[in-house]
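Quick review question:
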């Protein structure tokens, strides 16, 4: 997940990527990259039967931080796992690797998972609700725009088919509007925010760290946030997914991964500086760049996730995301979202 972005072309590219055997895996700043296809059982020759071996796909996004900490501090081994973190630059590469079983687990945006299920008829289970964006994604506007309802007829810059697109759809929907009500200007998220400073557009959708850069450079112009992920909890979120078939073969995988996740989260909280250094190395960032971004994220323990799922709020959020995607891009409507979630 670059920052959890996706392209509308993924569904077109996937068949070709799969035929290529995921040969296009690109190494991200974390120096993990693998070749070849793992055994279907996820168990390597010579491994003790009680040690589960698997490969996990992820991208240089801070939400994946606990996994880098777990790797560095030996937490996988402690819980009977041998996990290889396989880092990808492009969504398409990681998605193809997961579909073709080159990795058994993947850290995906919730909406990316929904798209995978709908377009590829995958039977997957989301077992860990990792994080959700609060202030890390936002709609910024010029000083004369006080709220989302005033975006009608205005120039709004955002990156089409990404989390920014999803956030804009939700914000407009709450005001009874659609993207067609604004004058949409498509450009990369980094450029979208910066185009707001000289007044090329009236509003822009972007994410951290670009949010802070734009607000800082445009503070004398009255640039401000009119909507953020905090207004739509869970809309922009990440989950760990495995195929249902794999979980049937390895029923202990879910609990072991959850134990590692919780331990790594707690370690990061108790050792913030060291944790930030590990996560910075894994994501290709600098430690001092992390705090303002992390402030806009909420991480979930498995206990918090179970409570969220039991309340029905998680299912409601996922159904809302799916609805937005059905409306905006004609995504398949008839999919079993409840089956996709295994968070309790």
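Suggested answer, residue by residue:
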């Amino acid at each position: 997940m670059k920052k959890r972005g996706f392209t509308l072309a993924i569904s077109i590219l996937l068949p070709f990527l799969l035929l290529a055997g995921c040969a296009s895996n690109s190494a991200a700043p974390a120096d993990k990259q693998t070749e070849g296809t793992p055994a279907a059982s996820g168990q390597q020759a010579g491994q003790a039967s009680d040690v589960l071996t698997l490969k996990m796909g992820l991208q240089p996004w801070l939400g994946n931080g606990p996994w880098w900490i777990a790797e560095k501090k030996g937490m996988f081994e402690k819980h009977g796992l041998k996990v290889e973190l396989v880092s990808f630059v492009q969504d398409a590469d990681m998605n193809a690797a997961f579909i073709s079983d080159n990795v058994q687990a993947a850290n995906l945006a919730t909406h990316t998972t929904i798209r995978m299920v709908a377009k590829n008829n995958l039977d997957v289970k989301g077992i860990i609700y990792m994080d959700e964006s609060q202030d890390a994604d936002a709609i910024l506007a010029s000083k004369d725009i006080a709220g989302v309802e005033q975006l009608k007829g205005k120039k709004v810059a955002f990156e089409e088919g990404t989390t920014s697109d999803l956030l804009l759809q939700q914000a407009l929907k709450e005001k009874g509007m659609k993207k067609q009500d604004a004058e949409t200007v498509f450009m990369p998220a980094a450029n979208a925010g910066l185009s707001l400073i000289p007044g090329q557009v009236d509003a822009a959708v972007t994410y951290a760290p670009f949010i802070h850069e734009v607000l800082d450079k445009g503070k004398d112009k009255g640039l401000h946030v009119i909507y953020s992920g905090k207004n739509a909890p869970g809309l922009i979120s990440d989950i760990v997914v495995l195929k249902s078939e794999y979980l049937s073969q390895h029923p202990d995988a879910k609990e072991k991964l959850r134990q590692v996740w919780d331990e790594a989260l707690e370690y990061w909280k108790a050792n913030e500086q060291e944790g930030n250094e590990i996560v910075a190395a894994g994501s290709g960032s600098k430690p001092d760049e992390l705090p303002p971004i992390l402030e806009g994220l909420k991480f979930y323990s498995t206990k918090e996730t179970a409570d969220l799922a039991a309340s029905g709020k998680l299912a409601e959020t996922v159904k809302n995301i799916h609805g937005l995607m059905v409306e905006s891009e004609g995504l398949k409507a008839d999919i079993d979202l409840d089956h996709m979630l295994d968070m309790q």
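Why it works: The radius of gyration is 20 Å. The chain has 15 helices and eleven strands.
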